[in-house]
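Human: Here is a favour to ask of a fellow structure person. Comparing notes only helps if you start from a blank page. I am asking you to supply a protein in sequence and structure-token form. Write it directly below this note and I will take it from there.

Assistant:
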Amino acid sequence: MPAPANRAVLWAMIHAERRALADDLAELSAEQWAARSLCAEWTVEEVVAHLTAAASTGRLRWIRSMAGARFDPAVHNARLIARHRGADPAATLARFRAVLDSTTAASGHTPAWLGEIVVHAQDIRQPLGLPARPGLEACTEVARFFASRNFAVNSKDAVAGLRLEATDGPFTAGEGALLTGPTLALVMVMAGRTAYHAELTGPGLAELRERR
């Protein structure tokens, strides 16, 4: 598998994926903005506000927010979503567009912030039936990161004891029962999105389903 991309390349990918999502969002109806995303507790509009918050919150501000929420991530996220959500979907989209090229982040784990936009973009697109998908190179970088550690999600633990092999790119990881499918689907199941089980095959799929 190729060597990991450097930080500048990763940020370029993040910006490209944000722009692609913003283009998709521009075509949504009011009903689609209010629809549930794959983040079951959030609507599409709330996911977009969350992405805006992530691109607007540096390390110190993140620490202050978490401390103010008594280190409860749900409270922390809810407060940031409320702060970055607009008066209506058009305003929420305008706020997201304002941070498309931001390099602000709560930590220096740049692949994690690429994962943030890759996963949440599909949290929006998949339930709405939108056809766009993140680029393969971006998905490969996120898959590599998710398989190597637990960060914002318990991605490494989710696939422990399984052998992952992408059918559309170079990504491979782990040892054990084989689980194959598109790189994006592997990323999404590592992030806990069971809706993507349907895109996977191999003897590892039954074991994965038992875990979720």
In short: The two ends are 28 Å apart (CA to CA).
